C-alpha cells in the first residue's frame, strides 16, 4: 500500500468540514504572508487551504487535527498531495510569531521539504558495485525535490491552514540547501556530538494514526515534538531563525526499511542552554531508540547544567 493511501483515511477526514467555520486569515498581515510565499513558491488559492482547515472529527467526536502536532498535520497534508518516493529525506522547520491582537492570532510557519535521495544512492552503489549488480534507477525512486510552506493558526484547539504554497527544484539547488550543517543530499548524517549510550524514554500520547499504522512518519515527527515539549513553546527572540529543525530520512541507510531522524531546537528560553538535540532510530522489525542531549551557551559553561539524557 502506498504511503499516500496509507494515510488517506485521516487526510480526508482532516479535509472534511463539520460546519462552515469562519477562517480568520483575513486578519493575518498580508505583507507577512507575501514575504513568506516568495523564492519560487507557487501560492495555492484560498479554496485549497480553506478545505484543509482541520475540522474533521473521529468516531468519538474529537477533532482529528487537535490530536496532531503542527509537524504531523503538515506532513499528512503533504502526503495527501504528493506521489510517494521510497528513499527520501524530509526537512521540517518551525517558526512562531506572537499574536498582534485579538483579531490577528499567533502564527506558526512550517516549511516541509522532501529531498529525493534515490538517484544519489543509485549513483553511489553503481560506483561501488558496478551497474550489473544494482537495481534500475526506477526502483530507487525518480521525482523532483519539493518544498511546501504552511501558515497555521490555532483555532478551537486544532491547527488550521491560512496559507499554503509549493515549489519544485533541481539537484543543484537541493545540494546547496542546508540540513543541520550538511548538504541536504548527503547520505549519512550525524549530530555535532556523539549521543549518550543510554536511550531516552519514549513519550506516551494518543494519536489517531498510531493504532492503525504503528511506527510511521507522523508518529516519528510527533515523538520528537513531544520529547522537545514544543506544544507551549513561545515565539523566539530571533524571528528569522527556526525554533526547530527536524531531518527525517526514510530508507536511506542500507537495504532494509530504516528511519533516522535528527532534531535541533534553539531559542530554548533558558539563559544557560543554547540548543537541544535529539536523534531517533527505527530499525527493521520496529525497534525504536531515542537519544538526546543539551548544549550550554559558550559563555555559561561554568554554571550550566545540561541534561546529558
Automatic annotation (TrEMBL):
Alphabetical UniProt keywords: Signal
Signal sequence coordinates: 1-20
Name this polypeptide is given: Uncharacterized protein
Species of origin: Bowmanella yangjiangensis
Amino acid at each position: 500500500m502506498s504511503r499516500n493511501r496509507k494515510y488517506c483515511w485521516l487526510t480526508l477526514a482532516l479535509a472534511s468540514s463539520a460546519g462552515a467555520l469562519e477562517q480568520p486569515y483575513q486578519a493575518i498581515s498580508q505583507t507577512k504572508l507575501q514575504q513568506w510565499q516568495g523564492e519560487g513558491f507557487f501560492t495555492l488559492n484560498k479554496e485549497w487551504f480553506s478545505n484543509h482547515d482541520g475540522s474533521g472529527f473521529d468516531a468519538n467526536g474529537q477533532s482529528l487535527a487537535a490530536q496532531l502536532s503542527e509537524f504531523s498535520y503538515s506532513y499528512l497534508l503533504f502526503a495527501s498531495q504528493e506521489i510517494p518516493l521510497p528513499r527520501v529525506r524530509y526537512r521540517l522547520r518551525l517558526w512562531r510569531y506572537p499574536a498582534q491582537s485579538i483579531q490577528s492570532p499567533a502564527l506558526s510557519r512550517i516549511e516541509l521539504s522532501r529531498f529525493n535521495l534515490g538517484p544519489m544512492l543509485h549513483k553511489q552503489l553503481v560506483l561501488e558495485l558496478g551497474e550489473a549488480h544494482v537495481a534500475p534507477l526506477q526502483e530507487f525512486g525518480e521525482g523532483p525535490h519539493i518544498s511546501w510552506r504552511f501558515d497555521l493558526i490555532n483555532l478551537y484547539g486544532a491547527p488550521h491552514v491560512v496559507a499554503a504554497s509549493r515549489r519544485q527544484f533541481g539537484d543543484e539547488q537541493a545540494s546547496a540547501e542546508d540540513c543541520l550543517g550538511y548538504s541536504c543530499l548527503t547520505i549519512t548524517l550525524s549530530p555535532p556530538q556523539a549521543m549518550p549510550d543510554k536511550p531516552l524514554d519514549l513519550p506516551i500520547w494518543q494519536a489517531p494514526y498510531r493504532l492503525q499504522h504503528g511506527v510511521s512518519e507522523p508518529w516519528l515527527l510527533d515523538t520528537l515534538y513531544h520529547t522537545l515539549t514544543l506544544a507551549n513553546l513561545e515565539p523566539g527572540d530571533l524571528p528569522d531563525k527556526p525554533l526547530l529543525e527536524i531531518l527525517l530520512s526514510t530508507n536511506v541507510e542500507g537495504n532494509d526499511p530504516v528511519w533516522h531522524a535528527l532534531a535541533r531546537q534553539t531559542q530554548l528560553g533558558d539563559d544557560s542552554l543554547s540548543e537541544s538535540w535529539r536523534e531517533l532510530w527505527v530499525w527493521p522489525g520496529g525497534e525504536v531508540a531515542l537519544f538526546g542531549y543539551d548544549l550550554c551557551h559558550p559563555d555559561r559553561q561554568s554554571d550550566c547544567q545540561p541534561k546529558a539524557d
